[in-house]
Specification:
Elements (H helix, E strand, L loop, with lengths): L7 E2 L4 E2 L2 E4 L9 H8 L6 E5 H5 L13 E5 L2 H4 L20 H10 L5 E5 L9 H14 L4 E5 L12 H5 L2 H4 L4 E5 L7 H17 L6 E4 L4 H9 L4 E4 L15 H7 L7 H29 L9 H18 L1
Parallel strand pairs: 3-10, 4-5, 5-6, 6-7, 7-8, 8-9, 9-10
Antiparallel strand pairs: 1-2
């Protein structure tokens, strides 16, 4: 059974799916210039980090009024680990970031539009019930934000979340507008991540819980489509700044320049052209996801036969393992 649907961020009555362009100073040292160049295109939704606001990597006074602004917790910028789409995993020395700095930045945020806040994620492992209780304290203090609760593995020995543990606490999850997971912590393979998302959404449906699921660190088009049919709703990531997504085939910028007849352009110009094209592509993809959720017509996803075959092969494997 396909689990994609049009769900709502209840606080603002905003429909999903949402594909959220993300910005970060981690791996993008000139993120302020990058953000200021691209922000006129960010009319619906974007994500920036409380960490980057605190250290003025993005100037709060320059935040562009997209309809929805996600404020991430800063955990990605604080940690040395990299996400799945990072190419090089270069050495990274983070600046200081702790709960008090997170609170001070969020308290001072004066952005007047619809805001979604991600709870602070602690460096030490916590039980899921402790994570939920701490997140509730944060969101109770900032009731003007929609709440986006980020699950983390509950034991230092776990690299990945355990859906069976999450299922035990679904009643408490009603306190949140969105629940989220980092893509890399959903499992060790594409199949395992899709299967865990499917299991979580299926179990949520049994509890009549229609809260949107946010997959952090995922902006690859084919992954978005797969996770969407498995029940996820909101997707953000940085890979749209690392690759060209032309034809849903992430490619390096040199390849993109040759293929797009931009080989005589400056490298930075090529990148910026690709960024704008990526935004347009992701916006089109969102429309395709909505159409698919309403019609269940696979042709509405505008995939090649090869791409659709790959998606269906994984999804059918998920269904088989759920039986």
């Amino acid at each position: 059974m396909i689990l994609s649907s049009i769900r709502k961020i209840s606080k603002y009555n905003i429909n999903t799916p949402l594909i959220v362009p993300s910005f970060s100073s981690k791996g993008f040292p000139y993120v302020k210039d990058l953000y200021n160049y691209i922000k006129p295109k960010l009319t619906e939704v974007s994500l920036i980090s409380a960490f980057d606001l605190y250290y003025n990597f993005i100037d709060e006074n320059d935040i562009f009024p997209s309809e929805i602004l996600f404020i991430d917790s800063g955990g990605y910028e604080r940690n040395k680990e990299h996400d799945i789409s990072d190419i090089y995993n270069e050495f990274y020395i983070p600046s200081k970031w702790d709960e008090s700095l997170y609170y001070s930045q969020v308290k001072n945020l004066k952005y007047p539009y619809q805001k979604v806040l991600v709870n602070y994620d602690y460096t030490e492992s916590q039980s899921l019930i402790t994570q939920i209780e701490e997140a509730i304290k944060i969101f109770d203090e900032f009731p003007h934000f929609a709440s986006d609760f980020l699950f983390k593995p509950s034991n230092i020995n776990y690299k990945f979340i355990k859906p069976e543990d999450i299922i035990k606490h679904y009643e408490l999850l009603k306190r949140f507008d969105i629940i989220g997971f980092t893509e890399k912590e959903l499992g060790s393979s594409v199949l395992e991540r899709a299967k865990n998302l499917y299991l979580i959404r299926k179990s949520m449906q049994e509890f009549n819980l229609d809260t949107p699921i946010h997959v952090f660190g995922c902006s690859d088009p084919l992954s978005i489509i797969l996770y969407f049919i498995c029940g996820a709703d909101i997707f953000d990531g940085l890979s749209w700044l690392r690759f060209s997504f032309k034809n849903y085939k992430p490619t390096y910028f040199n390849h993109y320049a040759i293929e797009s007849n931009l080989w005589d352009r400056n490298d930075n110009e090529v990148k910026f052209i690709s960024y704008i094209e990526n935004l347009d592509l992701l916006n089109t993809l969102k429309g395709d996801l909505i159409t698919f959720a309403e019609t269940r017509n696979w042709e509405s996803l505008n995939l090649s036969n090869y791409q659709l075959e790959g998606i269906l092969k994984i999804f059918n494997k998920v269904l088989k393992e759920m039986r």
